[in-house]
Amino acid sequence: MSKTTSLLSALLCTFIWGTTFIAQDTGMDNIGPFTFNAVRFFIGFLAITPLVFLFELKKFKSEFKSDIKSFVNLSFLIGLSLFLGSALQQVALLYTDVANAAFFTIFYVPMVPIIIFLFRRRSIHWSVWPSVVLCLIGGYLLTNFQDATVRLGDSLVVLGALFWSTHIIFTGIIVKKYDLPLTLGAIQTLIVSLFSFVIGLIYEEFIYADIIKEINSILYAGILSGGFAFVLQIYAQKNITPAPAAIIFSLEGVFATIAAWYILNQILDINNLLGCFFILCGVLLSQLLPLIKKNILNKSQKIKLML
């Protein structure tokens, strides 16, 4: 797969994620968040599984010559991260609007290098710190502090962003070891569905008639976002470095806000728009400055070699 195809995969993935916020929001009119996620991700699993048998079944023997235990452990961690991130995001949509949820979700972009620095002791570029400050200012402007339920919803999304970060990190590790993106996509969606089902049984009611009422939202979120978008993410991270991928993924908030304005008539005031702007600037700053520095160093090295 070429780098261009990977970039297009990341862009399409981001568009699906952003517009899926609408389905996630409207899909809870008659059912609870864990019921929605249980059905949504199980449909995603059903959509991906036939492709696993068609395209990756023959790869299993060659891929698993390496440590299969590592694949199982990383797959579980990816599935658990996806479950926690999606569960917190879904519950948060009961308390806050789509634009807030989308823009607070992209906090995972500056979180990724910080987590890698803390746990893997890799160097962290200085640009992350002003990026975090910009994101905090944006978060302050985006949140309605007079509304306690909105504050709760936004807080849940920020906590969920932590698990989206670990999901990206674990995915980046596993795709370097195993060339099984469809299999990984199927496994993680099944894990999310099972965990959501168990919690849904405890705290919610699974009523078939109510689930059918939300079938359009569930199918969109399940087949496109819960299934194929996460496979597209795996393909994207297979061939491009985290920095440009994260820049594209950060556009999720932009797509979600446009969709919320166009479909749900959710209009942001000037403070909210400024908040979105600060968060987007912070996210892009944390990713673009290291790339610019890298390009300058590469050019200077080429000039030295020419001399």
Low-pLDDT residue intervals, each spanning 5 or more residues: none
Q: Rg, please?
A: 20 Å
Q: Helical element count?
A: 14
Averaged pLDDT: 82
Would you tell me the structural class of the helices and strands? mainly alpha
Number of domains: 1
Counting copies of identical and different chains, the oligomeric state is single chain
What summary fits the major beta sheet?
Answer: none
**Judging from the principal axes of the Cα atoms, what is the shape?**
globular
Quantity of strands, as a count:
0
Helix content: over 70%
How far from one another are the termini?
36 Å
Q: Give the DSSP E fraction (strand runs of 2 or more residues).
A: under 5%
How do the SSEs run, as a string of H and E? HHHHHHHHHHHHHH
Question: How does this model look, in words?
Answer:
It is a single chain. The chain has one domain (3-306). Helix 4 (68-92) packs across helix 9 and helix 5 (98-105) packs parallel to helix 14 (270-306). The chain is globular and about 70 Å long. By secondary structure, the chain is mainly alpha-helical. The protein has helices spanning 3-26, 33-55, 60-63, 68-92, 98-105, 108-120, 128-142, 148-177, 181-203, 208-213, 215-239, 242-249, 252-263, 270-306. The protein has 14 helices and no strands. Helices cover 82% and strands 0% of the residues. The mean pLDDT is 82.
